[in-house]
Fold each of these.
Amino acid sequence: MVSQAQQEPALPHSSSIAKRAAAASMDASPAPPLLLRAPTPSIDLPAAKQDRADAASKAAAVFDLRREPKIPAPFVWPHDDARPTSAAELGVPVVDVGVLRNGDRAGLHRAAAQVAAACATHGFFQVCGHGVDAALARAALDGASDFFRLPLAEKQRARRVPGTVSGYTSAHADRFASKLPWKETLSFGFHDGAASPVVVDYFAGTLGQDFEPMGRVYQRYCEEMKALSLTIMELLELSLGVERGYYREFFEDSRSIMRCNYYPPCPEPERTLGTGPHCDPTALTILLQDDVGGLEVLVDGEWRPVRPVPGAMVINIGDTFMALSNGRYKSCLHRAVVNRRQERRSLAFFLCPREDRVVRPPASGAVGAAPRRYPDFTWADLMRFTQRHYRADTRTLDAFTRWLSHGPAQEAAAAPCST
Ligand SMILES: C=C1C[C@]23C[C@@]1(O)CC[C@H]2[C@]1(C)CCC[C@@](C)(C(=O)O)[C@H]1[C@@H]3C(=O)O
Ligand SMILES: O=C(O)CCC(=O)C(=O)O
Ligand SMILES: [Fe+2]
């Protein structure tokens, strides 16, 4: 565990961040302990009619630098969601994906067997031998600390655009009025092959030229994540006996989502959650976590911690890949807990298909032989469902499947005329 000194350094100004990001090898100085300020009656969290942008900026102020012993009511989660952590860590295999490149056939079969066993049960494994530059991974993690330490007004310049995933959010207070997660997030889209680097453009265009170096760090990081995702797709093909290239080609033109999670220390960690219980609606998640720990997976009714392994990245199957495997591989419930003393950072790269691709399992092989578990759908529909109609939780895919039969048509009927 990294011991975080408790001094409260001055908040770095964006230009100093730019210099540090340009150095691309940052030693994050400890973030100040961000504690909640009990909201005054004026912080009235978003109701259906209230202006959400206004509520968001008010609620965002809740993550303040003042010490309070109690967390505000909207951050308190139901007991069942916030059940205590199991003492037994989850035995997640660390798979050496370097074997896909070095011709080690025995190693390749061992890796495929490890992935098959993990994905058919709890859907999580870790990878080493991934080839992601350690200095780049460190710069991406520390860049998150730099961003989230900025004054609120600067972070709000990247405020999330309603109905999209991109942007800065504080506790999702612009979207939800209860069960607020104890986190701040910064999310942005990634796809390659564009005329100019989309992540660099996002940072410079949203936060200003000072943030271009930070954008370059995340541009490079996302490019590495895309390459690793395609390598993992090859391994998933092999482990499922699916024709070579089926999944890799499906994601060649992927349009993914990068999300930086920042979890401040919390005065009552047992009553709230950094990220509530959910299955990722996306296809595959590559999670780089710092060494504080907090990710937990629900297995046999217990919340089992996933220990951070230095240099390794956590991989988990999402709903979209569960459908692509016709249910053979599982998208499983997981959550993130917080603690009293240390901030925690995690970077989640969510691999998503191009919006209009039809999510359909291969018709051949063992996957194709079984009866279809899920209807065809597009990622655009599932994404829209999670952003406009349903808070991703423990039953997202089932709720989505039901919505598919009438939701899009109703939504279209309700949509204002385009003419
Ligand atoms: C499509 C998505 C929705 C969420 C981000 C993501 O890209 C994949 C994970 C989803 C999420 C993290 C699942 C838990 C609930 C959620 C609201 C959150 O806590 O952030 C979800 C994300 C969202 O912004 O809707
Ligand atoms: O921060 C973590 O460990 C998990 C976050 C997560 O599950 C998510 O953002 O989907
Ligand atoms: Fe997740």
Note: The two ends are 58 Å apart (CA to CA).
Amino acid sequence: MDKVLIRQLRIDTVIGVYEWEKNIHQSLFLDLDMAWDNRPAAATDNYQYALCYETVSNRLTKLVTEKPIELIETVAERVAECLLSEFRVSWVKVVVMKPGAVPSASSVGVEIERSR
Ligand SMILES: Nc1nc2c(c(=O)[nH]1)N=C([C@H](O)[C@@H](O)CO)CN2
């Protein structure tokens, strides 16, 4: 299966369940694996057939930052829904990491896979 990948997309946003988290920005890091047939783009060398990782990155940053969210699970689910519906991706793996959330861990996070 062909994929388009985005690694370590940093999104600074209001995220967290505790009161002290609702007045600060924290960084989330997203890894995205998106099923996409890359052959039409490669055969024609035409951007029109490519899943644009820049467009996806910008859209997801807007989505995640438009309002405060408590759980990183919610972030992952909203990101997956957006990719399946707006970008017509048939399958996606979304990893959301929140470094700094647990001081004794280098990072913590969630991973989901969704398809339509
Ligand atoms: N499974 C989760 N556990 C926790 C979350 C979360 O989003 N998913 N969030 C918190 C707090 O916001 C924490 O990150 C503050 O450091 C705790 N557990």
Note: The chain has one domain: 3-115.
